[in-house]
Write a structure and sequence with these properties.
Layout (H helix, E strand, L loop, with lengths): L1 H14 L16 E6 L2 E6 H5 L4 E5 L6 H19 L3 E6 L3 H10 L6 E4 L4 H5 L14 E5 L5 E6 L6 H15 L3
Parallel strand pairs: 3-4, 4-5
Antiparallel strand pairs: 1-2, 1-5, 3-6, 6-7
Helix pairs in contact: 3-6
């Protein structure tokens, strides 16, 4: 019996990271990294972006794959609505900056930045590594408020609801915080 319980504890501990995304109310880890917007490379700083308003941070597995292209198009289409709520969007993947320069123009339609996380340090700090293929990011979206708190988190490999869900969370936050 003791062996069975010990085995259960160990297997539960090993499986725990599958549900380890950051939770609402957690402090968002700050980061700076190379990013591309409209094919132009710059240094993206989450701390600087939060000074301007909320940030929608989304992780995606790989540029130019079917689901990631769909998601990039959805975020590009919604960029003006995010801006109307005072928010900016940043996508993060393990892709290199040369790939992201192309992706930012063709799939993100030069509407929002995508950031390179080739060391996976950002993915790991947000618990957003794809467990079935650890060289890729999981598809996880966060809404981060200007005080660096996680307002909303959504995790699904399906790209269809990330924009809709983050937009709804951001709209509710904006409605509560009108001056």
């Amino acid at each position: 019996m003791k062996r069975w319980i010990a085995g259960l504890v160990i297997s539960t501990t090993i499986m725990a990271p599958a549900f380890a995304v950051l939770k609402v109310g957690d402090k968002a880890p700050v980061f700076s990294t190379q990013a591309s917007l409209g094919g132009k490379v710059f240094t993206y700083s989450l701390a600087d972006a939060l000074k301007k308003g909320p940030v929608v941070l989304y992780f995606y597995p790989a540029a130019f794959t079917k689901g990631c292209t769909i998601e990039a198009h959805l975020f590009a289409d919604a960029t003006d609505r995010y801006k109307a709520l005072g928010a900016t969007v940043i996508g993060v993947s393990n892709d290199n900056i040369d790939t992201l320069n192309k992706f930012s123009v063709s799939e993100c339609r030069s509407k929002f930045a995508v950031a390179a996380d080739t060391t996976q340090s950002i993915m790991k700090s947000y618990d957003s590594v794809l467990l079935s293929k650890t060289s890729y990011a999981d598809r996880v979206s966060y809404v981060i408020t200007p005080d660096s708190k996680i307002l909303y988190e959504y995790s699904s490999l399906s790209p269809e609801k990330h924009v809709e869900n983050t937009m709804q969370a951001l709209q509710q936050w904006a409605d509560k915080n009108k001056k």
